[in-house]
Amino acid sequence: MTDSVGIRVEGVRFGYPGRPVLRGVDLDVRPGELTALIGLNGCGKSTLLRLAAGLLRPDSGRVLLGGDDLAQLSRRATARRVALLHQSAPAVPGMTVRQLVRQGRYAARGPLGMLREGDDPVVHRALDDVGVAHWADREVDALSGGERQRVRLATALAQDTGALLLDEPTTYLDLHHQLDVMRTVVRLRGERGLTVVMVLHDLAHAARFAERVVALRDGRVVADGAPREVVTPGLLADVLKVAGRVGRDPEGGWPVCYPDHPLPTLEYDNQIQ
């Protein structure tokens, strides 16, 4: 088992010409922790994941993985420590499940190693862990959306890293497959001791499955804590721009949100002035 690693973000700022995205983010994710990032579109959630995966470099500040500054690591060295499941991926016609999952071994095996036929034990474990081994020789294009998402999760697991970043892993899935993916992530986190950070739009999933919720607004962290502490009517209004109520699940005790109606956003206010 690969040891889980902590992720530390220190004073990170990042933006594009004329459009700042992150405006000074500090975040310390402990090894083995399962954290959900929430917030409106454009608040910087996905950008923060890409910075933590080493795909982007901050304009200022730094990101540390297991105590090492990502700016000092090569892309391949970073990929041996942290895996990112993107929100979507282009289709690869004719590729089988086994071939796609094997792509996750690039960081460990290198370009020459990828040319060798056969799977190593890490690929077999990744296929088994998400329950797709019996699909190994099927083409990915022939799978349903939920099945493809499980295969993509297996590809990320095949990197055999201690940290797993998930960008909206339930997007485009029906409720059955949303719950299937979330429960699989929670199970794998426990079995493998992974550090997991996931961007979620569904606050109900964040409140139920994460042990920590971090809310971003306008490129800054505005709330951070256990779901029972953070998920409040104030959070719904201030961060998600929704008026609503928050109760408690009678069995599990996690927060349950009852959104009532949307609140005006700054962009909307500017349009009607």
Layout of helices and strands:
Elements: E1 7-16, E2 19-29, E3 34-38, H1 45-52, E4 60-65, E5 68-69, H2 75-79, E6 82-85, H3 97-102, H4 106-114, H5 121-129, H6 145-157, E7 163-167, H7 175-192, E8 195-199, H8 203-209, E9 212-217, E10 220-225, H9 227-230, H10 233-238, E11 242-248, E12 255-262, H11 266-272
What does this structure look like?
This is ABC transporter ATP-binding protein. It is found in: Cell membrane. Its main location: membrane. InterPro entries: AAA+_ATPase, ABC_transporter-like_ATP-bd, ABC_transporter-like_CS, P-loop_NTPase, Siderophore_ABC-ATPase. Keywords: ATP-binding, Cell membrane, Ion transport, Iron, Iron transport, Membrane, Nucleotide-binding, Transport. This protein has 273 residues and is of the alpha/beta class. The chain has two domains: 186 residues, Rossmann fold; 72 residues, no CATH class. The chain is 34% helix and 27% strand. It contains eleven helices and twelve strands. A six-stranded mixed beta sheet has the order 6-7-8-3-9-10, sandwiched between helices. Strands 2-1-4-5 form a four-stranded antiparallel beta sheet, with helices on one face. A two-stranded antiparallel ribbon has the order 11-12. The chain is globular and about 55 Å long. The C terminus is likely disordered.
